[in-house]
Design goal:
- The protein is 51% helix and 12% strand.
- It is of the alpha/beta class and 223 residues long.
- The protein folds into 2 domains: 2-110, Rossmann fold; 119-220, Rossmann fold (3-Layer(aba) Sandwich).
- The strands form 2 sheets. It has a 4-stranded parallel beta sheet with strand order 2-1-3-4, with helices on both faces. A 4-stranded parallel beta sheet has the order 6-5-7-8.
- It is globular.
Length: 223
């Protein structure tokens, strides 16, 4: 029965929402849990792991990062984790490149089940790309297919990605505000959609009045 246990392990995902979603955007965690369940995705979530150490790594505290990584690895090995899905591109990048795990962005997993998605949007919307999600992960095709199910008419006007480095935002909030404002120059649609919790948080903080900020999961989950 060893083969059966191995098969079952490979069928399950570890859903890792990341530190920002857990700390400041808790509803996104619940959204993705609900979405994955509705789509028939088998997953586990481990409350004892709250972050990958990404902030320490970005800030240059390599020893602190390695300490977090070591402690997380002890838990992951006991859980026999093989595949990870995350809605946080920064955590995903670190888990893949520093931990060596197989990581799938949440939008890519949603795309595999796109025919089951029922969007709740209406009217026009502008998608705001995330710098790391688009430059480090090949999600363009997946994103288009998911947005086709959103209910929104997503305009095709290109917009520069938001550089959503969480450490930069914490240290330079005024400069971050200027960057976000420049990204949004010329954007006419009142609804802005993003697939990154960091971009979502920045847009809610700095986009200003007149915009409705929507994270991808909110399009498909009835609140």
């Amino acid at each position: 029965m060893v083969w059966l246990k191995s098969f079952l392990k490979q069928k399950s995902w570890w859903y890792f929402p990341g530190a920002l979603s857990v700390a400041k955007e808790k509803h996104l965690v619940e959204n993705y849990k609900m979405l994955f369940s509705d789509l028939g995705v088998q997953f586990s979530i481990f409350p004892e792991i709250t972050w990958s150490g990404v902030h320490a790594l970005y800030a240059g505290y390599k020893e602190d990062f390695e300490d977090v990584k070591r402690k997380n690895f002890e838990i992951l090995e006991n859980k026999h984790v093989q595949r990870v899905v995350s809605n946080d591109p920064h955590e995903s990048f670190v888990l893949h490149h520093e931990y060596g795990l197989e990581v799938t962005p949440a939008v890519s997993l949603l795309e595999r089940h796109h025919h089951k998605l029922v969007g709740r949007g209406s009217g026009k919307a502008q998608y705001i790309p995330c710098n790391i999600l688009h430059n480090k992960f090949n999600v363009e095709k997946a994103l288009r297919r998911v947005l086709e199910r959103s209910g929104y008419v997503v305009v095709k006007k290109p917009v520069k990605p938001i550089p959503c480095d969480p450490v930069f935002f914490q240290n330079f909030p005024r400069l971050t505000k200027v960057v976000v404002e420049r990204v949004l120059e010329g954007v006419a649609e009142p609804v802005l959609i993003t697939g990154c919790p960091h971009c979502y948080h920045l847009l809610k903080t700095f986009a200003g009045e007149g915009f409705t900020i929507v994270e991808l999961s909110e399009v498909f989950v009835e609140v």
